[in-house]
Amino acid sequence: MTYSGDPQPQEARDPVEFVALLRQLKERSGLTYRQLEERAAARGDVLARSTLADALQRKSLPREETLAAFVHACGRGAEAEEWLRARDRLAALAWVAARFTEEPSAPSAPSAPSAPPSDDTPLRTRGPRRRAVRATRMRRVLLAATALLLFLGVWALGSGDGSGQRPVDRPTGTETSLPFEGMREGREGRITM
User: Fold this and answer.
1) Using CA atoms, how far apart are residues 175 and 64, in angstroms rounded to an integer?
2) pLDDT at 123 > cutoff 50
3) At residue 60, what are phi and psi to the nearest 5 degrees?
4) Terminal C-alpha separation, the chain
5) Alpha-carbon distance 167 to 174, whole Å?
């Protein structure tokens, strides 16, 4: 149940405001970090007071498990889903903002063209170069896998005399045409005269 003047998580516009609302929720509960930890443990949740203290000092969203345990420990279990929905909304907004907004480019002063990155420059600083290196590596892996499969296929088809038939076992102890007249193959594969 929400009371007037209570922190409203859906009103938060960014993670900083959301964490500020969490601090207000803690203050309104009147509980210490130790008491919140004990209340969470009594409910079967894990909420270390050091983790909670860190979460309430950050500018980023707390983990879902930490948030749910905290809201329940503050005695606002009925509002836990509302807090989690607000957290998910802000996390989605932050994700979209991080992926689809461009960093503002500072006006560039006329300067000499920059030199290409040296070979000892880490790949993560090269942007398009990094993608090109990854694509080249992927092509090499695919080429090697294709060559291996081709080799195995040719090897499997090439084993035999080329007729595609398996060799027939000869029964032992029968006479065969041997290079010299009078030679015979014995029972154990020995050639006798």
Assistant:
1) 84
2) no
3) -115, 165
4) 108
5) 17
